[in-house]
Amino acid sequence: MIKGLIDWLDERIRIRDLGKAFSDRPIPGGASWFYVLGASLLFIFTLQMATGILLAFYYVPTPDHAYASVKFIQHEAPFGSFVRGLHHWGASFMMVLVALHLLRVLIFGSYKKPREVVWLVGVGLIALVGGFAFTGYLLPWDQKAYWATVVGTNVAGTVPVVGGVLLRIVRGGTELGALSLSRFFAIHTYILPWSLALLAGLHVFLLERAGAGGIWNAADRVPYKAEPLFPNQIFRDTVFILAVFLSLASLAVLFPAPLEPQADPTDSTYNPRPEWYFYFVFQMLRVFEGKLELIGTVILPGVAGAVLMLIPFLDRSPERNPAKRKLMMGAAAAAVISVIGLTIAGARAPIVNEPAVTSPSVLAGRAVFGRSGCSSCHSINGRGGTIGPDLTHVGSRRPEVDWHLRHFRDPRSVVPGSLMPKVDLSEKELRELTDYMLSLK
Amino acid sequence: MNIESEGRRNFMIRAIIGIAAFIGGVVTVPLAGFGILPVLRKKAAAWSDAGSLRDLQVNEPQERRFLETVKQGWQEEKVERAVWLVRTAEGGVRAFSPSCPHLGCGYRWFSADRQFKCPCHASVFDIDGKVLAGPSPRALDALETKVEDGKVFVKFEVFQVGTAGKVAA
After folding, report:
1. Do B33 and B53 lie in a common domain?
2. Which residue in chain B has the smallest CA separation from A25?
3. What are the phi and psi torsion angles at A410 (to 5°)?
4. CB of B123 within 8 A of CB of B100?
């Protein structure tokens, strides 16, 4: 049946030639477990596409609905927690596998002539994967999403001269809001997937043109030691992919993707933390403070990116054996150790804001404040309207419970001529709102 | 090139196909379920307040409108609904779905003829919902009702049209 179909196609479009050209690609020095990383990245990318497209069935990229729709996916939709878990952990796997793939190519010297362009496209792919991670975690619109993105986009604002304009372009305005969310969504689901698919295709195509690098030892790269891509290498790829898939699926089941409370732009007690794979950037911002900030945000990342791109042109000796490339291996080790060190330091960074010891009634009061529209006239920590007085420190100014209660019931009874309307809330809500006011010091 | 023995080659090919099928299967079930199952969920009917009993006269059908809170996926909406209410001589209240069971048109009560008539294909029903004439395959769809504190509550449901049996849509 299948053979009949293949015969039919072969007679017309010589499909067997195509299959042979693919399967017989020789791996110099033979297939190896070291070469499975690229294929596993293709697999993760495919899985991210599948889960991502399905998440978009329910996800809505607006501040009003994003959180509710993610909550629905996470808690109500059948298999929702699993699908979101796969997508969430898939991002982390992508990061780890990209790093391992990069190191493997570096150690094997596979970037050397004739594969310099394959390397260059690879560096572009790393940038795209970073872009995916950064744009992806704003989408749930929870506290972590919001605050990590506030900080992350502010990095763009530190660029000299064009920083302000850049920040507006990234955020779609001066503040993080509806326009940022739809813009991040469009980048995450249209621009980046298409770019990644095209560049990944180019990466594989260029490797096919240049030929696989194989083992570093020239004496082993002889025709009789080579093995075909299929099934020898594809077999190893597939077994590794199975291992990757099983660990990914287990993580998705055992550790569901987190979802923090909905983003609250007025919250001043939250401790923003990025995802673990951005800890090293986060830590760099802590190391280079004040006037030196530019080193951490623009100069070092820029230099690192440029050096990474230039590696095949700086290191042009044909020697591929890592034992004889002490300088390159030393530099790679130093880079790996710094990134890991910064990541660990970032993970351990002390929390700046004390963990909120907020009483439930203050929290309830903040919710009352939010839903009663108080912020259309009053600001807290620089957010809100300017018609009424700024309430950031109202607790120090007006520490008396009674004053607030009387003021809410009839503002003019304590502030003659006040423009504030009477607050029509239940006794319990007024108490909560008062507790919240007193907590603002 | 170093070509493997036939046996080892076949083993590798089978392993590749087997693993691919395994991963494909394990992924497809949850992904397809995630994409499709929420759509197939039947909505649980809930009681809606359809107004007071007092204004309803015995055997004089009245159309009542009310807002039903409907949860669609993550979104809760208030949807305007209509029902026909009939207060019976025994003191109970009967409610009919506002869609003709033939093809779903909205029908009306003609008090002079004491009949419900559908404007689309001229189905005619009596005050109990029974088909008197026309293409409707079944009687008007009765909805569950209850009376509490002088108010009529209706469990609003939507039914498939064009079928002989009354099946929730």
Report:
1. no
2. B1
3. -155, 95
4. yes
Q: Would the CB atoms of B26 and A249 count as touching at under 8 Å?
A: yes
User: Whose CA is closest to B73, among A98, A348, A296, A69?
Assistant: A69
Assess whether B14 and B60 both reside in one domain: no
Q: Is residue B3 part of a domain?
A: yes
Query: What's this model's pTM, rounded to 2 decimal places?
Result: 0.78
List the CATH number of the domain containing A103.
1.20.810.10
> A311 and A405, same structural domain?
no
Q: Look at residue A358 in the predicted model and tell me its pLDDT.
A: 60
Residues of B with Cβ-Cβ distance to A45 under 8 angstroms: none
From A80's Cα to the closest Cα of chain B, the distance in A is: 6
The answer to whether the CB atoms of B35 and A57 lie below 8 A apart is yes
Residues 6+ apart with CB under 8 A from B2: A30, A224, A225, A226, A227
Helix A80-108 vs helix A326-348: crossing angle, to nearest 10: 150
Residues B34 and B56 in one domain: no
A169 and A302 housed in the same domain:
yes
pLDDT tens digits along A402-431: 888 888 888 888 888 888 888 888 888 888
Residues of A in contact with B27 (CB under 8 A): 47, 50
Check CB contact under 8 Å for B74 and A50.
no
- Domain housing B131: 47-155
B37 and B59 in a common domain: no
A238/B contact by beta carbon, under 8 A: yes
ipTM: 0.72
AA identity, residue A314 = L
Q: How many domains does chain A have?
A: 2
- Chain A hits for B16, Cβ within 8 Å: 231, 234-235, 238
Nearest residue of B to residue A86, measured between CA atoms: B27
**Cβ atoms of residues B123 and B102 within 8 Å:** yes
Where does a domain end: A348, A379, A412? A348
> Are A213 and A311 members of one domain?
yes
Count of CA atoms in the C-beta half-sphere (13 A) of A27: 19
pLDDT in tens, B47-93: 999 999 988 999 999 999 998 888 878 888 888 899 999 999 888 89
Instruction: Measure the CA–CA gap between B127 and B138, rounded to whole angstroms.
Output: 14
Q: Is the pLDDT of residue B167 over 60?
A: yes
Q: Which residues of B touch A26 (CB under 8 A)?
A: 1
Query: Measured in Å, how far apart are chain A's first and last C-alpha atoms?
Result: 78
Q: Which of B6, B14, B23, B76 to mutate to probe the A interface, most A CBs <10 Å?
A: B23
| Domain that includes residue A74, residue range | 29-348
Same domain, B4 and B72: no
Q: Are residues B142 and B61 in the same domain?
A: yes
Lowest mean pLDDT among A91-100, A127-136, A341-350, A367-376: A367-376
Question: Please, which residues have CB within 8 angstroms of residue A397's CB and are 6 or more apart in sequence?
Answer: none
Interchain CB distance below 8 Å, A223 and B22: no
Residue A1 counted as domain residue: no
Are B87 and B52 part of one and the same domain? yes
Chain A CB contacts of B35 under 8 Å are: 54, 57
Q: Could you tell me if B66 and B122 lie in one domain?
A: yes
